[in-house]
SPFH domain-containing protein (Paraglaciecola algarum), 285 residues
Amino acid sequence: MITEKKGFSINGYLAFFAVLPLLQVVFGYVLFSQTNIIIGIIGSVLTLICWGGFFMVQPNQAKVMTLFGSYVGTEKRNGLRWTIPFFMRKTVSLRIRNFESAKIKVNDNLGNPIEIATIVVWSVTDSAEAMFEVDDYESYVTIQSESALRNLASSYSYDPQSDNESDVALRSHPLEVSEKLKREVQERLGKAGLTVHESKISHLAYAPEIASAMLQRQQATAIIAARSKIVEGAVGMVEMALDRLKAQNVVDLDEERKAMMVSNLLVVLCGDKNAQPIVNSGSLY
């Protein structure tokens, strides 16, 4: 495995003020000397070759240098630099980048087809690994991120299957799912000298063919939960009403009248519509 190391280069301004006077001296020697013109020409050629060693490094940028196919180092210092002219230099951006995957269809761990997408924030931290360990590190990010997303989606269910808070699901636990996705993507991209700064789910939905059925199931679950809460509250209110009537001696009810009162109160409290009162002018019997 090739790891990043510091390459050889010097300050470009110092090299410029050293090469420029040398070039002037050599050309003057060629023009005014009649005896060693060949030496002057050779010196001029070497001086011109030295000009090829100048290069510029922008902020958050690296220059990966190779010599005849061998990696010799990376230069990250900004500004004008000079190195051996025979070094080949390739630019690698160290800036933070965003990658948004396409919406992919995958089955969750219950077999339900869902649509999911992610946003991965990444950057190059080891320029040598990014250049030499993979063929194209940008394409590598795309393919490996989508592969990690598929694996993550198949490991969890879309919705939690119980009221247990430890039951992690894609929709109900976004922070835990994002952290797991970040770790999984980092394990894959770390081989190419890349660092994942953030990874989050950007789109999550049931596939169109089952979206309607799943919506009905969610609505039914919500209705059942709401009804359970209403019944629980209604029973408590009926119990409180009977206890207060008995404690304050407002009316003495036998078991049959208590049953009728409980029935009427539950109908009123649990009904979807407002109750229509009926005035009874006769006897209960």
Remarks:
- The mean pLDDT is 82.
- The domain at 97-206 is CATH 3.30.479.30 (Tetrahydropterin Synthase; Chain A).
- The CA atoms of residues 216 and 222 lie 10 Å apart.
